[in-house]
Amino acid sequence: MDAVFSALSSWLFLIWCFSFSGDVGSVYFGPKHPMKPHRICMTHHLVLSYDLHKKMEIYRPHKAYPVELAQFHSADYVEFLHRITPDTQHLFRNELAKYNLGEDCPVFDNLFEFCQIYAGGTIDAARRLNNKLCDIAINWSGGLHHAKKCEASGFCYINDLVLGILELLKYHARVLYIDIDVHHGDGVEEAFYFTDRVMTVSFHKYGDLFFPGTGDVKDIGEREGTYYAINVPLKDGIDDSSFTRLFKTIIAKVVETYQPGVIVLQCGADSLAGDRLGCFNLSIDGHTECVRFVKKFNLPLLVTGGGGYTKENVARCWAVETGVLLDTELPNDIPDNEYIKYFGPDYLLKIQHGNIENLNSKSYLSTIKMQVLENLRCIQHAPGVQMQEVPPDFYIPDIDEDEQNPDERVDQHTRDKQIQRDDEYYDGDNDNDHNMEDGL
After folding, report:
1. Angstrom distance (rounded) from CA 293 to CA 310
2. Helix ranges (DSSP H) in 75-215
3. What is the DSSP letter of 331?
4. Residue 303 phi/psi, 5° resolution?
5. Using one digit for the tens of pLDDT, what is the confidence trace for 57-67?
6. Which residues are identified as catalytic?
7. Chain segment 38-75, per-residue pLDDT in tens
8. Given pLDDT bands bounded at 50, 70 and 90, which one contains residue 394?
9. The predicted structure's pLDDT at residue 253
């Protein structure tokens, strides 16, 4: 197992970075909460069982420092996340309301460390891309796209995507952000709504009071950012063929028009059929086809996770997409691994499309496509930017001398073992996680 965390030779002259920390998977939002970070452990074990780690460099991300998180979030919000605990939260009712912590975004043990790890993974991925240490970097624990500058939202506390994009902007004039989560990528869009240096493109369910309630096709950005926010609002039941056809048409035109230097792709798996909080009919093949298409542009690519609340399907999807990013097709029979029992009864990798009625008529999708393409025609050419001296990657405050070197490769086998909670998993009718309606 030591070899998993050692530097591995590049594959096809590329180094692939896959960020993983076992600490992320041990976090527990609560018995009735649909967010289950164990899905990251399940994904990791699938990646190992298919030997995909042998084609990647796997590294342990550093824990993002408060000052790094405050590059986007307000200092007072970061400081509050740092000090709040389940035992003390009753003393801070006003602050909990101010920062939107509560049922959707609960206070749990090791909350701040959880934020530090998943945000650190995305920041490290961006820095490795900036320094050309890899061409594609993956952080499946990241992609928490709802968090705002001064508040939590939709199970998200720190917006790692915004922090990663801010890093990429140090080296790239234009960053393209693509979001295929079933929920609108509102936190990322809001952060860059007034700039042309980031184009945000979100494909999501819209209407019927679906969370977060934003993302109309008419929302296109403001001031310098006008036409640089693209929203593709969809209805229940969209299928593989409709989704991928629309995705490819729009993204091809976006890349041609905007000419980004790097792409950030948020792969929320709650757009899959059968997700507890989702309402689309996408199979893993349909979801994955979007990843395959983006990869073909051969631009530096940062890939993250996001939503996804049927844990076994999330793990399936992200394992397959890891394979796609490595040009490796995975056998449909899932190899034995520490989570194998959760993939029964068929123990197969692929899931089929769903059978929710598709409310997206051809005329509706055509109208959305034409509106988006018309907005893109309003962009005369890719915006230029006066590039200034690149600020340093790291600002490291005073830390304990015992703090582990984040770049040091050590044996973490014991720490990375699965931590399985008896109160984490439910079967059939005993699963009460469906009570939550919002999410990533």
Report:
1. 25
2. 75-83, 93-98, 111-130, 160-168, 186-191
3. P
4. -115, 130
5. 888 889 999 99
6. 146
7. 899 999 999 999 999 999 988 888 999 999 999 999 99
8. low
9. 97
Are residues 433 and 309 in contact, defined by beta-carbon separation less than 8 angstroms? yes
| Measured distance CA(94)–CA(85) in Å, rounded | 15
Strand residue runs (E) in 180-248? 198-205, 229-234
Measured between alpha carbons, how far is residue 310 from residues 35, 181, 342, 362 in Å? 9, 14, 11, 29
- Count CB-CB contacts under 10 A for residue 74: 15
Q: What is the distance between the alpha carbons of residues 439 and 310, in angstroms, rounded to a whole number?
A: 13
Determine which helix (DSSP H) or strand (DSSP E) holds 176, and give its type and residue range.
strand 175-179
Residue whose pair of structure tokens reads 């792409």 in the numeric block:
263
What stretches of 278-324 adopt beta strand conformation (E)?
A: 301-304
Closest by CA position to 165, among listed 41, 3, 1, 304:
304
Order of strands, edge to edge, in the sheet holding 57-59?
57-59, 16-19, 136-139, 301-304, 262-266, 175-179, 198-205, 229-234
